[in-house]
Amino acid sequence: MKTKLNNKKILLAMAVTGLVLMGAGALWGYMLPEEAHLQSRIAGFISGIGSSLGIIGFVLLLRRARLGEEKARDQDLAMTDERGLAVAYRAQSAAAIAAVFALVAITVLALVRGDMLYAGTGSFLMCGVAVVKLVAWHVYNKRM
Amino acid sequence: MKNRLEQLRKERGVRQEDLAQVLGVSRQTVISLEKGKYNPSLALAFRLARYFCLPIEEIFDDTDERA
Which of A111, A134, B31, B42 has its CA 20 to 30 A from that of A74? Predict the structure, then answer.
């Protein structure tokens, strides 16, 4: 995936395909009668996929043009080499801790407000996170 | 962990970009290694040792770690 997204031709094809799909979806949706709900949804889906592809393609192309080929390749490598992976692992750990704190905060808030459904769901999810961590620890402990 | 990477690289007149390319890492990783901010994996340490034709202990100094 990384190698493919580094290829300028593929990025250009992605951007153009995206724009074509976006235009086709929008045009199809515009031409449909009001009662054609299903086709309208499909047109919206095509248009949505197209705009996502187009924007991603153009942003990556712009980034390459701004940085230059060599620097862009180096920055891509910086995300995926061993230091990049170590940095990503630490960032992910920090995000996981923040997510657990957010879950605790929501659960406490739900308890304070007396909303037992949300409080119960929050508590259940917190227990789930603890169980996942315990199981993952044992799995990796055996593997390494 | 302290290391002699910067000194060895400069002695050989190699640019950070070129060393990074040979090692298959980014220039940022080479910079971090030279500053001692990042300790390489065993595989990367071996690649460095092979590149400089030196044993690992002559590139990296682990006296601080052992203390």
Answer: B42
The span from the CA of B19 to the CA of B39, in Å, is 16
Q: What is this model's ipTM? A: 0.85
Total domains in the fold of chain A:
2
Query: What Å distances lie between residue A71 and A63, A67, A99, B55, CA to CA?
Result: 10, 6, 34, 32
Range of the structural domain that residue A14 is part of: 2-80
Q: Which residues of B touch A78 (CB under 8 A)?
A: 26-29
Tell me the residue range of the domain where B39 lies. 2-52
Residues B45/B60, Cβ–Cβ less than 8 Å = yes
My answer on whether A10 and A44 are in the same domain is yes
Number of structural domains in chain B: 1
Query: In chain A, positions 69-98, which contact chain B (CB-CB < 8 Å)?
Result: 70, 74-75, 77-78, 81-84, 86
| Per-residue pLDDT tens digits for A31-84 | 877 777 778 888 888 888 999 899 988 898 888 888 888 888 888 888 889 999
Token digits of residue A130: 């603890």
- Would you say residue B65 lies in a domain? no
- Among candidate residues A80, A101, A123, the one where a domain is terminated: A80
Cβ-nearest to B25 among A70, A75, A82: A82
